[in-house]
Automatic annotation (TrEMBL):
Entry protein name: Undecaprenyl-diphosphatase
Gene Ontology terms describing biological process: cell wall organization; peptidoglycan biosynthetic process; regulation of cell shape; response to antibiotic
UniProt-listed Enzyme Commission number(s): 3.6.1.27
Further facts: Bacitracin is thought to be involved in the inhibition of peptidoglycan synthesis by sequestering undecaprenyl diphosphate, thereby reducing the pool of lipid carrier available.
UniProt keyword list: Antibiotic resistance, Cell membrane, Cell shape, Cell wall biogenesis/degradation, Hydrolase, Membrane, Peptidoglycan synthesis, Transmembrane, Transmembrane helix
Subcellular localization, as worded in the UniProt entry: Cell membrane
Single GO molecular function: undecaprenyl-diphosphatase activity
Function: Catalyzes the dephosphorylation of undecaprenyl diphosphate (UPP). Confers resistance to bacitracin.
NCBIfam families: PRK00281.1-2, PRK00281.1-4, undec_PP_bacA
Species the sequence originates in: Sulfitobacter delicatus
A matching Pfam family: BacA
Membrane topology, as annotated: Multi-pass membrane protein
Length: 268
């Protein structure tokens, strides 16, 4: 792995960690950055596997809270219901992800214009929903009703189109179902753990034949950078959205999507 490739892998890992837990589409940003930098991993595995760094970041930040929940589960019905709500929300992604994996990776991941359009459309939706979301009825992410969790899980499946954003889809869905802005982000965090870990494991299995030593070097660099930057973002984002909402992220999506379309039009 040469120094230029190392720098690109480090930059993409940093980008992954900074964007994974905010509703701007980390995968969309990674694929578009890779397109303009001329970076392409075998089977697009790099872009999926480095997300494990972000998963470990959120496990680190929430380790005490998760330990408390799982420790209480044998005797606390509320803790068991919370665990079940996350699993229920995770199931639709398992079903759709397995069925559509090859189409997503070979077609949707290779279409920069689609990603840019999804960034813009998602940005518009985020700005609008941030203003018109119904009054809060569910202020606690750990007490979402199971039907609500399932609906959020179904909405999450839209994020399999790169540029939509997993966190963006789950946050918009939760807001429209009555979650507070902070609770919507927090439930998205919890749901990301099984979703991203499952995507990592399945993608690694599907692409086990195309991985080589050089690819593992790139992944290791991206993984470390994703972990470090994601820890910083997770500690910051809940307070930010609780105070200011999601409009900034919507406008960022619109700006990036517009610039990408201009770049593609110019032949970049």
């Amino acid at each position: 792995m040469d120094s230029n490739t190392t720098l690109i892998a480090a930059f993409l890992g940093l980008l992954e960690g900074l964007t994974e837990f905010i509703p701007v589409s980390s995968t969309g940003h990674l694929l578009l950055a890779g397109h303009f930098l001329g970076f392409e991993s075998a089977g697009r595995t790099f872009e999926v596997v480095i997300q494990l760094g972000a998963v470990l970041a959120i496990l680190t930040v929430y380790s005490a809270r998760l330990w408390a929940v799982f420790s209480a589960a044998p005797h606390d019905p509320q803790a068991r219901r919370f665990i079940l709500s996350v699993l229920v929300a995770f199931l639709p992604a398992v079903f759709v992800g397995v069925l559509a994996h090859d189409f997503i990776k070979t077609v949707l991941f290779e279409t920069p214009l689609l990603i840019a359009v999804m960034l813009i459309l998602g940005g518009i939706i985020l700005v609008v929903v941030d203003r018109i979301a119904p009054p809060t009825t569910e202020p606690d992410a750990m007490r979402f009703p199971l039907p609500m969790a399932l609906k959020i899980g179904v909405i999450q499946c839209l994020a399999m189109v790169p540029g939509v954003s997993r966190s963006g889809a789950t946050i918009v869905g939760a807001l429209m179902l009555g979650a507070s802005k902070r609770a919507a982000a927090e439930f998205s965090f919890f749901l990301s753990m099984p979703t991203m870990a499952g995507a990592f494991a399945y993608d690694l299995y599907k692409n086990r034949d195309v991985l080589d030593a050089s690819a593992m070097g790139e992944i290791a660099v991206g993984f470390v950078m994703a972990f470090i930057s994601a820890v910083i973002v997770v500690r910051w984002v809940l307070d930010y959205v609780g105070r200011y909402g999601y409009a900034l992220f919507g406008w960022w999506r619109i700006l990036v999507g517009g610039l990408v379309i201009l770049g593609l039009w110019a032949g970049a």
